[in-house]
Design goal:
By secondary structure, this protein is α/β, with parallel strands linked by helices. The chain contains 14 helices and nine strands. The protein has helices at 2-15, 53-69, 87-97, 114-117, 132-139, 144-155, 177-187, 214-229, 240-245, 257-260, 286-291, 293-300, 315-325, 327-337, and strands at residues 23-27, 73-77, 100-105, 122-126, 163-169, 190-195, 261-264, 270-273, 278-282. Helix 13 packs across helix 14. The protein is globular and about 50 Å long. The two termini are 29 Å apart.
Length: 341
Amino acid sequence: MKYSYIAKSAVKHLLSGFKLPYMVMFETTLMCNMFCEYCIFGEEGKFNDLGTRAVRERIFRRIDEFAEMGLFALSFSGGEPLLNPHTCDYIAYAADKGMWTSMPTNGLLIKKYADGVARLDMLEVSIDSLNPQRFAKRRGLDGLPRILENLEFVLTKRKPFTTQINAAVNLENLADLPELAEFCRERDLVMHPEAVHNVMRQGELLPDMELHGAEIDQVERALRGLRAAYPKNVRFYTHYYEFYRNGGFGPKFPCRHPSKLISMKPDGALHFPCAFATLYQSQAPLREIFASEAVQKIIAQEATLWDFCNGCKIGCPYEVSAFTNSPMLAVKSGLNFLRIT
């Protein structure tokens, strides 16, 4: 089913001249049950009317639209995505369509929803450190023992290398990463360390948590060494650090979120240009929205950043932008993802 869907999707993208979006970021809720020091979540968000039948049916229709249009991947995000009690229903529906599915989660609820998350092509659990005190400081909650217990339970239902540990890295936890890499090796997990970056949304600010100057070089050297020591487990985009040093998105490396990564909110509305800022939103069908004058105008502005984009280094739009901005970078990114280089 999945390979057939991917083949049909590839044909649709080819016939469109590769002008179709190829991924959806679905924020199933903006609520979170952790309070990470580098994240804006951890409190009730705006789009949380999740329980009505109308919302559920709207999301199912959206997934039908995504599949009909040929989008490859659907990422279930948040907040903490499993705080939406219907997330696993949506995962199953997208998986049955043949779409490639992934979900980042803090891991506090994965045991409760183990059968649901077993359907994901890639389950991503956020663990920055195996040191309980450091984990609690960074995450605002003493939850590491519970998360590790949940993870061990869920791994009995998943294939090797289909579960990823996402580690947000700065100098504070850099020395903890070898232990985390060894943890991943022993369990056939993928480890994805990514430099801490500010998560910006319109009207919301956090203290600057990013790396600067020599800190970037220190982290990159350590991660390259870690990948050399654990080539089957550690994967990250090495070219991301050049992007990071150069100040993130800009004219030389435009953000392609509006054209390639569709942002869907918990109520099923599609937002443009991205998941982090809204200039246009609609509940209309995706094809109608994507072809509209308002959205095509936003897409045409990708190469010239809006004020709220300045300095953005967020990983998900970086990945889709890397694939689009440079064919060679797309190849290197794919090899990085497959842990071949």
